[in-house]
Amino acid sequence: MEGLVIGLDLSDFYTQVCCWEREKTWTFPTILCKKKDEDQWYIGDEAYSCNLAGEGILVDKLPALARKGEAVLLGAKKYSPRELLQEYLKQVLSHPRTAFKTEKISQLVITLPQPDSQIMDCLLYCADYLEIPRSRFHVISHGESFLYYVLAQKKEIWSGQVGLFDLSQSGLCYYEMKVQRGLKQSTVLSDYEKIDQGMNLDLLDSSSGIRMADKILCGCAERLLAKKLFSAIILTGRGFEKPSWAAEFMKVIGRRRKVFGETVLFARGACVKGQDCLEAETKFPYVMICEGRLKSTISMEVIHEEKPTQLVIAASGDSWYEAKSTLDFILDNQEELVFQIQPLDSRKRYEIRMPLEEIPHRPNRTTRIQMKVGFLDESTMAVMVQDKGFGELFPASDIVIRREIAL
Length: 407
Prior knowledge:
Elements: E1 4-10, E2 14-19, E3 25-29, E4 31-35, E5 41-43, H1 44-52, E6 56-60, H2 62-68, E7 72-74, E8 77-79, H3 81-99, E9 105-112, H4 117-129, E10 137-141, H5 142-151, E11 161-168, E12 171-180, E13 187-195, H6 207-225, E14 230-236, H7 247-253, E15 258-261, H8 265-278, E16 287-289, E17 296-304, E18 307-314, E19 325-330, E20 336-343, E21 350-355, E22 368-377, E23 380-389, E24 400-406
Parallel strand pairs: 1-9, 9-10, 11-14, 13-16, 14-15
Antiparallel strand pairs: 1-2, 2-3, 4-5, 4-6, 7-8, 11-12, 12-13, 17-18, 17-20, 19-22, 20-21, 22-23, 23-24
């Protein structure tokens, strides 16, 4: 039997898991319980039971702990967020491994509501702990999972724009997908909006709260869907498991549009991404612009073999976390680095200049520099330039220039 392709949606409140071409799915509260005085761990309902019986200590909101870098004292021992997430993911993955009788994981894709470098670093170390090679492990945003999920559907579903309403413990979120078709390559975009209007699952505990929630949703739908051509509206999250409570909202979104629900949408989208990683050629040859991916192409004009050349450092649609490069240059009457930033709208092209005045002055073409580029998030580029000198004639100095550049 081949290894499992697993999509795992990890949020502060719940975790959902699915496997490629397998019907069974799992949903757990994102909690971990350690049995007192024993190295025994539980998740989900077993964790609640152990804690209620007074036999264990409960920890919740594990991704939030990882983002903050906060250690937790359980009994007499402190555990780092990484150790807690490692144990939690080990317990979660034991369920599909047991159900399908295999330990092998061919691809694991974890999707997060809003990835940041802190939790992504933590999850990479978790993959090492779980002995999953980094080439078979990926972390993506909910926005990217949404794109993969929709693109895997029949084409008539995404012939126009597609809207997604996600109502969960963390509130109401709206995603919108559209395809921009180009001559060479099409671009698929996902926009995201966190709707902060007091909308939460607690409203659904009373009849008056339900009426208020339905009214809020109607107002949001009228605003978000107005004057746009949608081919489908999708509902996900615990609040839409039984959407019949939102009768007026369902009428608004159902006007000349397909409406359907998918309770494990983000996990399924992550699973599609995982399977695509195993293909010899991607089934989704699009530039994807969403949370977690760069929205501009960054390049520099350089001379290569005596000809001016545009050197692309990172392209729009690249994962900002994975977009890292190291380049060596010889300066030719150059006192600054010039980065050309090309957003999707070509009319908004602009330049960012990084002075090199700290580099020692030498005769032309006798200074070599090494430039390392990475990204702190999708809108912040980190650049480090180190003086490498020029052999024995002009020894390297210890000078390093560091800049954070807002794109």
